Amino acid sequence: MSELQIYLIVIGLVVIVLVLSFNWFQDQRVRRRMQAQMPVIEQDPLLAETGAVGDIRREPGLGGMSAGGINVTERIDAPLHPDAMLDAQEPDPSTEIVIEIAFQGPMLGEDLVPLIHPLRTAGRKTVRIFAQDTEGQLQAVIEPSVSYDAVHLAVLLANRSGALSAIEWSQIWNRAQSLAEQLECAIEGPDQQRVLDLASRLDDMCAGLDTQVGLTLLMGANHPVSDVTNAAENMGFVPVNGQLVWLGEYGLVCFSLARSDSESFDAGMAGVDRLSLLLDVPCSPADTRAFGKMVEVGFELARRVGAELVDDQGRPVQPGSDAVIDERLKTLYQQLEQAGLAAGSPRARRVFA
To answer: What integer pLDDT is reported at residue 17 of this predicted model?
Structure first.
């Protein structure tokens, strides 16, 4: 092999190394810029073992009590819940932990929105995003033409999936940090152990307050879904996300009606032979006769569709025994209020989601 051939081979190898190095550098640069815009992972595979926490906290009944004898309520048109405006304008220090990203200079909302979209969840926890305008005011709604100098990420500490985990916290922190690096700005947040301690404390408190009360309508044979929905809507139920709901104070859901097979009411034309009524106590407005009203509605719906109303133990509901459960619910409503989680409030509906 001649000396010229050796030189050419060496030069070729050097060129290949340079090209590979340049491509690696470009790849790392692109990855760094795009990391903050990665798709949101709704469920981390490593969280599968913690999914049962939500099952433990969700209680479908109160000992199989039955009830009846309450007049059907009318839907109420009422103003927003008194906590709603405060809830919309700022993070909630009782149930959320905040990560702040401060920009080097003002940034228009239209440029900010696509960057923060991947930051709206942390595993199974929601993240509310508040933008701070140049006057120092936090805004829950980002206007395209308004300039902002910071964003506050309010990370939910606990919900029915359990306490915020180290994996979930790391996920949102890494995404926020990637965005801060991309924009070359400052990021501030609490120590991870403090976050996990607060999350565990909130989850423990909520676990003792989380109650749902269920009833079942047994129709014996399949009924057309359209017949069921027509009967329910004629009574006052409203379709929401495939379910039918009964609205009350502040326009909040008092209780819901669902197919026991978990299918949506608008999913195909298949028949249905069983329906479920559910009173989600922390998420519905406090009412001294909350359960009794659901029972009365259940009796009327059962009459219209030819069904039998039974409790969570499969026993026929007997009129007149609803007062026992409603008394127990009064105590629970008081406990929720004392814990700062008033039934039906935005805070309670976040935590008990």
So the answer is: 67
d(CA 134, CA 272): 56
H or E stretch covering 283 = none
The residues, ordered by sequence, that sit 6+ positions from 37 with a Cβ below 8 Å of its Cβ are 114, 115, 117, 118
**Residue 235: CA count within 13 A, CB half-sphere:** 26
Task: Please list the ranges in the chain whose pLDDT falls under 70.
Answer: 1, 5, 15, 17-88, 268-269
Model confidence pTM above 0.90? no
First-to-last alpha carbon distance for the chain, in angstroms, is: 75
- Element containing residue 311 per DSSP (H, E): none
Distance, in Å, from the CA atom of 121 to the CA atom of 166, rounded to the nearest integer, reads 14
- Tell me what pLDDT residue 248 has: 85
Inter-axis angle of helices 322-338 and 290-305, nearest 10 = 130
